[in-house]
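Re: that chain you flagged

S.,

Sorry for the slow reply, it's been a week of failed gels. I finally had a moment to sit down with the sequence you sent. For the record, here it is as I used it:
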Amino acid sequence: MALFLPFIFGFTTSFLGMLAPSMLNITSVKISIERGKINATKFALGVSIIVLVQAYVAVYFTKYLKENPDFIQILQKIALVIFVLLSMYFYREFKKENKNTSEFKQKCKDTFLIGLLLSLLNMFAIPFYYGITMVLNKAGWLQLSQNNILLFVIGSAIGTFMLLYSYSSFAKFIQGKSKKTSNKLDLILSFLTGFLALVTLVKLF
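Prediction finished late last night. Pasting the structure tokens below so you have them in one place:
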């Protein structure tokens, strides 16, 4: 079971991190409703491929700094800032769509390509995985060996895919209920990242 913990951590953090309504989730719902589930699945695959790269970059960067003890406190302070910003981000209701992105989605017919490009626009992905990896490693739950990194990254990509696939599967239901549930989901993730920020702050003293 311990061998699969990195995969479980990657899957869980990615799934929860994508849970709140966002540009990617809402796009997945819209594609499912307007173009069908197959196109929504292609979109989810495109997003997940970019997440695979983003998670690897974040974990590799953490591993590099971990091998240099002088940077440990700097790493913790950066993670603290990241989690505070993420907590603030999730606390706000982020529902505005980028105008240029919306125009692009209407013109582009390749939903896989849309997934790739919109995932690249997700500027929170690398800081999110970087902060999560640092906390897990500092707690002794994630050793930064090559196998563990690979399992964590694959778990992150699959977690993202499954979350987006779930959104597309329940597109009509989500469309009718999203106004009632989005605030609750954002609040849950705000408390989660706020808690991680608190844990990181405690470790600094």
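What I noticed first: The chain has one domain: 2-203.

Talk soon,
D.
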